[in-house]
Amino acid sequence: MVLDRKRRPVWELGRPRPAGLPEWTLIQNPDGWAGDFPAAYRNPHWQDIMIYGASASAHPDRDYFSAVDELIRDGFDCIYMDWMEFFEDEAVIAEASKDRSGPAEEMVKFIGRIRQYAKERDPDFLIIQQNGSSLLSGQPQLLQVIDAIAHEGVWHENLSDMDWNDPD
């Protein structure tokens, strides 16, 4: 496995999948970020890492079991979930088609599981979705499991050829 300077796995675009990556890493990060891998959010092992921590063992460097546990332990009162439009990715759709489930529906279920687990530990915990507003199409139950949506590029496309001093 190739590692970067911080000893994170690197999966360079256009290269074969490195040996040793967990089965829940679906594809290379399309933006080419080293050490970042889109995860199969439907995968039970990934959900255990993120939400439940049931298979996590005690570790001398931590007193938590899941990512949500760590957030709450560290005093955070929300989770800001980026790249929520991932359910539209071809690799996610292909993975979901293996058992005939829908990636949008599974994304909403995943968010709902995070919400339920976190709210049981902190009733004021919030779920904030970054992008992916198209998830609302056909999935109105999304509004029951998130508290807010943040969306990039609402007012402009941030094009580099824009004259920011032009009042128009």
Proportion of helical residues: 25-40%
Class computed from helices, strands and strand pairing: alpha/beta
Largest sheet: 3 strands, parallel
Discrete helix count: 4
Low-confidence stretches: none
Across the major sheet, the strand order is: 1-2-3
Specify Rg, calculated over alpha carbons: 18 Å
The residue-averaged pLDDT reads 81
How many strand units? 3
Q: From N to C, what is the helix and strand string?
A: HHEHHEE
End-to-end Cα distance: 51 Å
Query: Which shape, going by the Cα principal axes?
Result: globular
How much of the sequence lies in strands comes to 5-15%
Q: What this model shows, in words?
A:
By secondary structure, the protein is of the alpha/beta class. It has a domain at 71-150. It has helices spanning 44-52, 67-73, 90-97, 103-121, and strands spanning 78-81, 126-130, 148-150. A three-stranded parallel β-sheet has the order 1-2-3.
